[in-house]
């Protein structure tokens, strides 16, 4: 479990197909401290398991399916990735509950400065807009953000200068992909309502 509050922006060192899985190596001097093999780290919002680490780097095995369904298919050496270690029981809950399970790959429609802030509009795949509500929560590349607008299959968020400075969003452009995780509560409510509307045999 994560909060969507990014701890560090790491840099991809290598990402390629190894013998048993895709292997991702990330330079992460901050997040690589106080971790062990088997720990979970959200990389661009996707929960991955550390298979090896040293004082400055983390290594992860990545499923081919994960690479296909997320923006990992865009990762190249030098790319910036958002990193967050899993939530500690005694830690502050600064964002919202984020599982690290990506629901969909969104596409950036508009990304531009407006005054001192930035406006980001994302298109979601068909069928996913139902999880978006005005002032609700959404995780974009693992960042906990508040939905400012919903229009059809697009939604928008506003980004303060701090978010731009401490996440990988500063490198994003229109047309690029972002990992999306919708609010867990919305998905549970949908499941419960569907069960209630199903007549008993």
> How many extended strands?
13
Biggest sheet: strand arrangement:
10-9-13-7-8-12-11
CATH architecture of the largest domain: Beta Barrel
Low-confidence stretches: none
* CATH-derived topology of the largest domain: Elongation Factor Tu (Ef-tu), domain 3
Distance between the termini: 37 Å
Radius of gyration: 17 Å
Characterize the largest beta sheet: strand count, sense, and whether it forms a barrel.
7 strands, antiparallel
Helical segment count: 3
Shape: globular
- The CATH class name of the largest domain reads Mainly Beta
Structural class, by secondary structure, is mainly beta
What is the averaged pLDDT score?
93
What does this 3D model show about the protein?
The protein has 201 residues and is mainly β. It folds into 2 domains: 78 residues, Elongation Factor Tu (Ef-tu), domain 3 (Beta Barrel), CATH 2.40.30; 89 residues, Elongation Factor Tu (Ef-tu), domain 3 (Beta Barrel), CATH 2.40.30.20. The strands form 2 sheets. The protein has a 7-stranded antiparallel beta sheet. The protein has a 6-stranded antiparallel β-barrel with strand order 1-2-5-4-3-6. A hairpin with a 3-residue loop joins β4 and β5.
């Amino acid at each position: 479990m994560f909060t969507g509050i990014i701890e560090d922006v790491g840099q991809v060192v290598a990402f390629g197909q190894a013998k048993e899985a895709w292997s991702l190596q990330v330079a992460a001097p901050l997040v690589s401290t106080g971790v062990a093999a088997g720990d979970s780290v959200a990389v661009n919002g996707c929960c991955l398991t550390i298979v090896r680490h040293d004082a400055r780097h983390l290594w992860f095995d990545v499923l081919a399916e994960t690479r296909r369904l997320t923006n990992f298919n865009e990762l190249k050496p030098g790319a910036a990735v958002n990193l967050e270690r899993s939530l500690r029981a005694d830690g502050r809950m600064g964002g919202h509950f984020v599982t690290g399970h990506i629901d969909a790959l969104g596409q950036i429609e508009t990304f531009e400065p407006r005054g001192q802030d930035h406006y980001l509009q994302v298109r979601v795949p068909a069928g996913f807009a139902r999880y978006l509500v005005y002032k609700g929560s959404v995780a974009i590349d693992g960042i906990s953000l508040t939905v400012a607008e919903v229009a059809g299959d697009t939604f928008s968020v506003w980004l303060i200068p701090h978010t731009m400075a401490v996440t990988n969003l500063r490198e994003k452009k229109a047309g690029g992909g972002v990992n999306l995780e919708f609010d867990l509560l919305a998905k549970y409510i949908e499941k419960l309502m569907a069960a209630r509307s199903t007549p008993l045999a």
